[in-house]
Amino acid sequence: MLEKPKDQTQGSLFFSLESTLNHRHPLFILSHKVDWDMFEKAFSPLYCCDNGRPAKPVRLMVGLLILKHVRNLSDESVVEQWSENIYYQYFCGQQEFLPVEPCASSELVHFRHRIGEEGIELILKESIRINGKDGDDQDVYFDTTVQEKNITFPTDDKLTKKIIKKCLKIAEENNLQLRQTYRRTLKKLSYDQRFRNHPKNKGKAKKADRKVKTIAGRLVRDVERKLGKMALDYQAALELFKRVLAQKRNDKDKIYSLHEPEVCCISKGKEHKPYEFGNKVSVGWTASGVIVGALGFRNEYDGHTLDRSIEQVERMRKSPPKNGIADRGYRGKSKVRETVIHIPKAFSKKLSLHMQRKEKKYFCKRAGIEPVISHLKADHRLSRNFYKGIFGDNINIILAAAGFNFKRMMNKWKTSFFLFLEQLFLTIIMTTNLIDGKYNIKYESK
Questions:
Q1: To the nearest 5 percent, what fractions of the chain are helix, strand and coil?
Q2: Can you tell me the distance from the alpha carbon of 365 to that of 369, in angstroms, rounded to the nearest whole number?
Q3: Which helix (H) or strand (E) holds 142?
Q4: DSSP of 6-46, one letter per residue?
Q5: Are strands 264-266 and 276-286 parallel, antiparallel or unpaired?
Q6: What total of structural domains would you count in the chain?
Q7: Which sign, positive or negative, has the C-alpha torsion 76, 81, 84, 89?
Q8: Same domain, 277 and 352
């Protein structure tokens, strides 16, 4: 249930939160630029009108999501820092300083699931609107990257040992008497698996790996047999265990994680990181520096991502891009919807010199998307995704792009002409004070 709106126009007779803040601070300016009423109208129907516990204000929850990806914080950190930062509280609509956490960190999880991908896209759309005309460029540059999932580097032995632990846990929860737990046997086998790169230990390590896999299969079958009718409650987990134990080295659609089975193995040809485990990301960027599209895919060919990416750009701006500039990974696409796709290729004699120069200018500008992707990963939580499932993959990408756009405008406001004048004024005052102090010292010495 939505909480009834409170009148906070005058919370205190002698104290106002707004009067204590610097009105040129980027977060203060951003709080007045965001259309909070739009979020209220869009998300209010998702709550019950007259039943249940009063929910947290929509502005508070949306503001926390924006701050999280602008400042590169976790759910726990952004909630904790909100209770300490006066600018965070004003940005989220608070009129009085509260030295307590606004909500539990788990409430952010429930709010993300409540508004869904469409609600998250509204935040991206608002970030594009705040950037003004820079987001309306007719030329959009596309590129793909990989968003890694928060899993360890997968190996067959790791997955097998996790299956054994989970089987023993299921047996313990249901008081099952297994034929054997294999604890002592597994401890001895772990000694044989050490130093497998040494020539003398390779054979012994491989033999131990096969034995561990055999034990895992025995435990899965033993647990399934002794669960009886209760096996239906664990059917999904047991089927996953069987699939992992049956997969081979060169199989397609392999499982690389038990708690994130949708993870894909993606090779982007990087020398320092040949394989990355996560999902593919398509980013659409204008030459002015605004991200107008960010979409998640599994492991499609780059050219197949263009249709949905251009559709999202049109949905965010209400106008499709006239030109789409991409690299050679998108070969095979010349036009998608109403957008002409430009891909580097050997210039033919049919093209005029003017067109050749224009194409070359496109491809030189396209290189600017690479540092944008680096900033998304380093500063806005795209490098490692901590959200669960495919839904988590998709919303993390969109929120990272929205955080980038908001941060872009905040950086612009930092370097504004007013800030320059303020710094110049402070410099003049400081130099004047130093000169006065110097003459005073001379006068006293005399």
A1: 55, 10, 35
A2: 8
A3: strand 139-149
A4: ---TTS-SS--TGGGS-TTSHHHHHHHHS-HHHHHHHHGGG
A5: antiparallel
A6: 4
A7: negative
A8: yes
H runs (alpha helix) in 329-368: 353-366
Domain shared by 142 and 162, yes or no: no
Strand (E) or helix (H) holding 68: helix 58-71
- What does the buried/exposed string (b/e) look like for 378-388 if buried means 16 or more CB atoms within 10 Å of the residue's CB? ebbbbbebebe
Helix residue ranges per DSSP H, 250-351: 306-317
Choose the final residue of a domain: 246, 278, 301.
246
In a domain, 391, yes or no: yes
| Same domain flag for 325 and 280 | yes
Across all residues in the chain, what is the average pLDDT?
90
Closest to 288 (Cα-Cα) out of 372, 217, 347: 372
* Mean pLDDT along residues 172-179: 94
Q: Which is more confidently placed, 96 or 91?
A: 91
The residues near 58 (Cβ < 8 Å, ≥ 6 apart) are: 2, 36, 39, 40, 43, 44
Q: DSSP per residue over 114-140, as a string?
A: HHHHHHHHHHHHHHHHHTGGGGG-SEE
Q: Work out the angle at residue 438's Cα, subtended by the Cα atoms of residues 434 and 439, and round it to the nearest 5 degrees.
A: 125
Mean pLDDT of 49-75: 93
Domain of 387 in residue numbering reads as: 131-152+264-407
What does the alpha-carbon distance between residue 200 and residue 436 come to, in Å, rounded to a whole number?
81
Nearest to 292 by CA among 312, 268, 262: 312
Per-residue pLDDT, 318: 86
Nearest to 327 by CA among 304, 310, 302: 302
* Last residue within a domain, chosen from 246, 278, 299: 246
Same-domain check for residues 220 and 355 = no
